[in-house]
Structure prediction request, 301 residues.
Amino acid sequence: MPDRPQQRPLFALVIRLGAAFVLSVMLVFVKLLGESGVNLAEILFWRQVVTLPVLGLWFYASGTTYLLKTERLGLHGKRALYGLAGMFLNFGAVLILPLAEATTFNFTSAIWAVILSAILLREKVGPYRWTAVLLGFAGVLVIAQPGSGHVPLLGASIALSAAFMIALISIQIRDLGQTEHPLTTVFYFSAFSTPVLLLAMPFVAQAHTTREWLLLGGLALFGILGQFFLTAALRYGAVASVIVMDYSALIWATLFGWTIFDRLPPATTWLGAPLIVGAGVVIAWREHRLARKLPAPLVSE
Prediction:
């Protein structure tokens, strides 16, 4: 079993910043494939299946096959189950919503993390973080404008559910990162999820054009890179610290939405997004302060 990694906060922030860009590009591929009529289950299959041979060759060529040994196979399986559900929701939201809106709703993962810590971990959450939770959901209401029809209710619900799953998965990856190499976690996620997706292929697979195959290849490549960067960031830094870098994805989502899909966010998104981002920053700042004050594994305020 590998030694516990040394914490390198600045390095973790840089890696997470790179992950935000790489995953933003990946979502562009998802949306283009969806517009081409490729089924969501097939998109997910090709996103995952390529990971196995690529990482298998890397482990063999680098002489690091020992990294595949794990004593936490059950937790890897649980992480894969949650991860597969999270990908379905995340990609589904991207297919329904504009990139900027789908990305902004994903930022509520920090808010969900606070709620989960209070309900599941019975952590004492004080006024700072509860205020941030209310601020974040106020931002959601501003963007969604229930009843206005600008943001489909189904799309908003799926995006918020995806953010909820991200909060759960981040906690799991942080735990796995204490003993597992980032590529080990990525490999087992694909190993557990690919057979499940394979079962759906006879019902959803279709012939593809050269363009679609190129998009699927780009999706797989950027997916592997993004997942590795995410896992590595959580290996070297705390969730509350590195998650702040995720907000840079809104810049890329807006840029790609404008240049590729000719879609700029409306005024409601520009008003609501700062509320959600601000809530996440407050939560991250508060948890960082509490972690410095209290030596216990679970901090409270």
